[in-house]
Specification:
2 domains, 127 residues, Helicase, Ruva Protein, domain 3
Length: 127
C-alpha cells in the first residue's frame, strides 16, 4: 500500500470517527458528497465513485465538516479548485439551461405532434 493511499484511508477514518459523534454532520457529509461530481470522470458523484481522487475528496469533506466549515464554504472550495462543472446541479443561469430549456423543447415537440396528428385525422373532402 502506498503512503498516499494509507494517508487517505487514515484521514477518512479519522474524519468519519469525528463525524459519527454528530448525526447531523454525517448527513451533511453525505449531502455534500452527493452534490459533487468525481473530477476524474465527471460521470458519478463523489459518494458513488471508486477512485483515489473521490476517496480523497470524501476524506476532505468529512474533515471540513468536522472542522466546522459551512456547506457553502466547502462547495465554494471545490468550485474554485475544479470549476462549476464539479457541481451536480449548477447554480444560476446554467440551472435554467439544464432544467427549464429541455422542458420547453418537450412542450414544443408535444404540441407539434398534437397538431400533426390532428391534421392527419381530419377527413379530406371527396373530389
Amino acid at each position: 500500500m502506498s503512503q498516499r493511499t494509507a494517508l487517505i484511508i487514515f484521514g477518512l477514518a479519522a474524519a468519519l470517527a469525528l463525524a459519527q459523534n454528530d448525526p447531523n454532520a454525517q448527513k451533511r457529509v453525505e449531502k455534500l458528497e452527493n452534490s459533487l461530481l468525481a473530477p476524474c470522470c465527471w460521470a458519478e458523484t463523489v459518494a458513488r465513485h471508486n477512485s483515489e481522487v473521490a476517496a480523497q475528496m470524501r476524506a476532505e469533506i468529512a474533515q471540513f465538516v468536522a472542522a466546522g466549515r459551512s456547506d457553502r464554504e466547502i462547495l465554494d472550495y471545490y468550485k474554485q479548485r475544479y470549476g462549476e462543472r464539479i457541481l451536480v446541479e449548477p447554480e444560476g443561469a446554467r440551472w435554467w439551461l439544464m432544467n427549464v430549456v429541455p422542458l420547453i423543447f418537450l412542450a414544443l415537440g408535444l404540441a407539434s405532434v398534437f397538431f400533426v396528428l390532428k391534421r392527419w385525422r381530419k377527413p379530406r373532402p371527396a373530389s
